[in-house]
Amino acid sequence: MYEIISKKSLNSSVEWMEVHAPFVARKCESGQFIILRVDEDGERFPLTIADYDREKQTITIIYQIVGFSTQKLSQKQVGDFIHDFVGPLGRPADLKPHKRVLGIGGGVGAAPLYPQLKRLHELGASVDVILGGRSDEFVILEDELKAFCDHVYVATNDGSKGTKGFVTDILNELVSQGTIYDEIITIGPLIMMKVVCDITKDLGIPTSVSLNPVMVDGTGMCGGCRVTVGGKIKFACVDGPDFDGHLVDFEECMRRQSMYKEEEHLCKINLGG
Q1: Domains of the chain with CATH codes
Q2: Does position 224 have pLDDT exceeding 80, yes or no?
Q3: Residues 42, 35: contact at Cβ < 8 Å?
Q4: Is the dihedral of CA 217, 220, 223, 227 positive or negative?
């Protein structure tokens, strides 16, 4: 059992939670994830390790309330316990001490982006970040990223904060101004990562992405998280979740992501979501 140490809302559908998980906190690195079960009868689902504190023996997770299991997790309060909290899983992000790095996060993609940019800053890199969201409410971790990023840019679909438009609009503007980056890390919706990678491939800027297909066991045995990278089959839970974005077959990823939309919709209705 894993005790919830602290909890807060980041917006109407996204929450931040700190969990006492000493064995995970002892070993985890930026880019890895955990798989949890809220209770004994719950389903297994993965969440990125957004931060960790080895001294306090805690792990920070950030989740969006989108279905039955995340609703159950949201009902937990400080002092309550999570039944299973397995990790660290996946490969740590391959973070090199570059001179200048740009992070691009869409919505809750800012959560897995945060620990990687924080670690790059610790390695001596100059770090910028672009955050995107449908509106002001859905832009998260802006203040936390300002603590170590040189520049924090924001794009919202409705223009309620920062630039009206998409993260790629800011990316194109930065590049047109002659800003040079050694690497770009982008995490968010598949279509956003695909468009970013299309732009950076033409520019010759190395770009990594984080993929989160369906994961069940976290060991590669179920095969649900298979993706095609560089023409080869990979399993996001053991080979990733971070990959070279220029090698990812995004069209296949998006087709697979939409395979069970109708079933997910029916499940949500039946569970009262």
Answers
A1: 2-89 (2.40.30.10), 93-210 (3.40.50.80), 211-273 (no CATH)
A2: no
A3: no
A4: positive
Give the span between the Cα atoms of 185 and 101, in whole angstroms. 8
The three-state secondary structure class of 253 is helix
Distance separating alpha carbons of residues 114 and 191, to the nearest angstrom: 20
Question: 23-39 burial, b for 16+ CB within 10 Å, e for fewer?
Answer: ebbeebbbbbbbbbbbe
Q: Find out whether 227 and 243 touch, Cβ atoms under 8 Å.
A: yes
Q: How far apart are CA 238 and CA 226, in angstroms?
A: 10
The better pLDDT of the pair 171, 98 is held by: 171
Q: Residue holding tokens 């936390």?
A: 144
Per-chain mean pLDDT for the chain? 89
End-to-end CA distance of the chain: 26
Helix (H, G, I), strand (E, B) or coil at 25: helix
Supply the pTM of this predicted model.
Answer: 0.87
Is 237 within 8 Å of 218 (Cβ atoms)? Answer: yes
Phi/psi of residue 248, nearest 5 degrees: -80, 135
By C-alpha distance, which of 19, 29, 93, 98 is closest to 62? Answer: 19
Query: SS3 sequence, 92-145?
Result: CCCCCCCCEEEEEEEHHHHHHHHHHHHHHHHCCCEEEEEEEECCHHHCCCHHHH
What is the pairing mode between strands 226-229 and 84-89? unpaired
What is the rounded (10 degree) CA torsion for 105, 109, 115, 121?
0
Helix or strand (DSSP H, E) at 236: helix 236-239
Q: Which residue has the tokens 């200048």?
A: 100
